[in-house]
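Write out the 3D structure for:
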Amino acid sequence: MHKILLVEDDEVIRQQVKKMLEQWGYEVVLVEDFMEVLSIFVKVEPHLVLMDIGLPLFNGYHWCQEIRKVSKVPIMFLSSRDQAMDIVMAINMGGDDFVTKPFDQNVLLAKIQGLLRRSYEFGKDQSLLEYMGVILNLKAMDLVYQGEVVSLTKNEFQILQVLFDHAGNIVSREDLMKELWNSDFFIDDNTLSVNVARLRKKLEAVGLKDFMEPRKVSVTGCVMMDKRQFVKYQIRSRLPFYLLFIFNGIILVLFAFLFEEAADILHYALTILTFVAIIIVIWDLVTSYQSYNLAYLYEKMTPSSPLEFYLAQALENAKESQMVQTEEERKRYTDLMDYYTLWVHQIKTPIAASQLLLGDVTDSKTRALLEQEVFKIDAYTNLVLQYLRLENFHDDLQLRQVTLEPLVKEVVRKHSLFFIQKGLTINLHDLDVKVVSDEKWLLVIIEQVLSNSLKYTKSGGIDIYFKDNRLYLKDSGIGIKDSDILRVFERGFSGYNGRLTQQSSGLGLYLSKKIADQLGHDISISSQVGQGTTVSIHFQKQKLAID
């Protein structure tokens, strides 16, 4: 029986779709907590995801991207959005199909059956392990946490797989070694220590500092051995040599009893042997512990045998291979960014042509509506372009004295169409001041904030003014809920208002925040539901990030 995960916030649609699918023998799991969509997906392991676009908190595009980082399970979008761009975006984000609301139940069922049939004619694919929000992809041999993908070596992956299989339980070092050997993955104790240390560093880099606890080897614990533990394991590994010394000592004592005339000489020999043995043991412990420290802290291995030399060479070759792979990945990323940038620039041509063709539309009402839509397309295109340019933010950064008034007026003139159509007032005052910033990027911030205000302001107007080294943009819009106010700057977060109006991309304010942080400006929001929202941009010269 196929399992379907339904991510839909409308209660009526959710229950109707669930009832219909269960009648046809499908197991349907409903998402109730829209903050844990990815975690629920991993735990449920569905064969198909039905996803709405307009969801509380993060939209469907966001969750589709998160799922695609860990799985290739088919995703079908259910949405009231019927524009071609919405469908294109859904597919580009990783969706496999798109059904527009309202829909015919028979059509939806046929699409689901067809998608499942195409996807699972070769059987089910279970390739994910999850613990405490951390996902281990058994196919890709990588780890995912909060959207960050951690690349693992074969050793690191095998160690983590054993730990995930025993999630919640302590795994001793001996048990871990036994598991690895039973799986035909033959590594020695020193190799295990080095790989565990490297793995721990990788986990700490993505915020999993305490995911591996001291003196335990488990899915929640493993660190460097202390000196007492090291001595224990060192003695165990050198036991044959220690037994040889002891045996020789016993032989000398025995000979001393048997040959009394040579007893004094044998006693001297035993004393010298004991002294030499102690020196050798101490020297071996100190040098081995120093080598262990170097391997753990700096990943520097000093080969002391042909086997260790071979392993060191293999490790070096693996590092070189990883560097080559990293460079290839970087090149692919650069090529992808270049493609999207080219796409944005190319789409500006038909946008410009559309703006020219609008002059031939005789009906004023129709022309006004078309102008509004073309403006939105152009704005969204620019938003994408600005988002892409964040990667190389400092390449064209030019900090200088910027006069606010002409900058603000330019943004207002650009959006004059919306002020006129909505009948909104605009009040500009106390803007004849200069601030230290980058004119181009500051313009982007103001434009995104003003655009956001216009989306949610239906009556009244917008005030823009400068006071106490802060630029304020105050509107009389619908306001922002207290539950959303702390998250409005997160990427992909649309909140209650975005879900209500279906207008939010979740990128505008995120982009503004990222740019402001780079420029050393502090951007903040205060709001009251039904009374409006105020955005403040604080210009702090001492915090300019120009490195």
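Residues 3-126 form a domain with the Rossmann fold fold (CATH 3.40.50.2300).
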